[in-house]
Amino acid sequence: MLTTLFSNNNEVANLGAACHGLQSWIERLNEAELPALAAVVQDLHRLAQHEKSSVKQLADVLLRDASLTSKVLRIANSVYYNPSQETIRTISRAIVLIGFNNVRQIGMSVSLIDGLLGSAPRDQLQELLARSFHAAVQARNMAGYVLTRHDEEIFIAGLLYHLGELAFWGCGGDQADRLASILSQPGVDSDEAVQEVLGTSFRQLTQGLVKSWNLGDILSLVHNSANRHDPAVRAVSLGARISEAALLGWESPEMEKLVAEMAGFTGVSTEEAMQQVLASADEAVKVVATFGASQLGRLIPNTDPEQIRLQQEERKARLLQPDLLVLQQALQDLGLMVVRRGDVGSILDTLLKGLHQGAGLERVLLVVLADNHSCFRPKRVVGEGTQAWLDDFVLPAHQSEQPHIFSYVLRNKEPLWMGVPASYNLNELVTLPIRQRLGQGMFFIAPLMAGTREIGVVYADSRVSGRALTHEQFVAFQRFTQLTGRCLEALSKKA
């Protein structure tokens, strides 16, 4: 049933006038192109909404199609899902041995592959489907760090993240040929081209299908910008962006930023995050092979260790290095602003330039007391992957039930070098929310004062490269924060 969905070219040709606009495409995909796939996906999704869904209900959905049943059983018997290699001959037995959610995930994935790759698939479709499986594995593995459940739902949300675009390249007919031709021309704006040919965007088409197929929950949340801070949504979004950035190279600037963001999200070092990303890419290749789509595995970027090693060596040569001239100039400028009373923007810009370009600290964050001194909010950031902090880094200023390192240093008015033996006794103040946002490892942290008035806290680390911080950097860090405080004090006394 599913394998023949797109083999009837005459049916496509007889659809009449070309589709244009969101509703027109949804009606075409639902009524003429994807009814069988939609029905299976809807039924399998519906089973996840009810905790009391039975083994029989899941088996009934899969057994409607003999081809789907045989493929699910073959995959359930694979080493990837069944390492014990105990023979599985029935869907019910598969559910018992490898789990209800695993069998449901297999059914969803097989349906998507069969429904879309049934007949002479376009290159664009195969490339996007490979990216979708890659994104799904990245998202699921990432979610394991921050969530205790929903792994399987996150896999499916990652797999269907580009549902609208997948459906178009699988069913677009002449319009897909036209769009492919336009996109092959140099300098073309892809979003404008899609809008011209379809009369809508791929994102809107995905949202329309998600609503039409009633795929709610995580998948709907992912496409609503208001939910971008939800951990499940962040995992799916990051997985999708990582799968796309991988096409530019594992050492591309885009990938470096995403790895830093992932490290902050999951609370691991950037090295561990990169290792997880590479391991997930390798796993994605195994997953598509398990599903009988080995051709997709060749479209997932290679993680050959020798190639990665060479790329890393090249990257180390480009790492941020301390610049003594910049450091000295920044200190001199701050010293002059103590006397001449520079404006706040110039003071803070000089502080961050001195710490980042001068002292060679890769990431710097300045938070200030806000909302009647009830919380810390970012004021300035610099370094790879730090722009996200401006949106999602907020800490309570006073939290007696869970004190943290930011409030501690401001209260005690002392700079600290965290991650060295002298500060081990304060490690419990580096709370889970802080680790999730900033990652783990060494960092410097100091209060920012204007005389006796509390302004905020300065944080700095070198987690982009994972290099250890140095004594010289800590001395510079202390000097810069002290001078900045003096500048702000002088400014507050300005008549």
In words, what does this structure look like?
The chain has 495 residues and is an alpha+beta fold. The chain has two domains: 2-313, Hypothetical protein af1432; 324-492, Beta-Lactamase (2-Layer Sandwich). Helix content is 60%, strand content 8%. It contains 25 helices and six strands. It has a six-stranded antiparallel beta sheet, with helices on both faces. Helix 3 packs antiparallel against helix 4, helix 8 (123-146) packs across helix 15 and helix 21 (344-358) runs antiparallel to helix 25. The chain is elongated, with a radius of gyration of 27 Å. Residues 1-16 have low confidence and may be disordered. It holds the Pfam family HDOD.
Short description:
This protein has 495 residues and is an alpha+beta fold. Helix content is 60%, strand content 8%. The protein has two domains: 2-313, Hypothetical protein af1432 (Orthogonal Bundle), CATH 1.10.3210; 324-492, Beta-Lactamase.
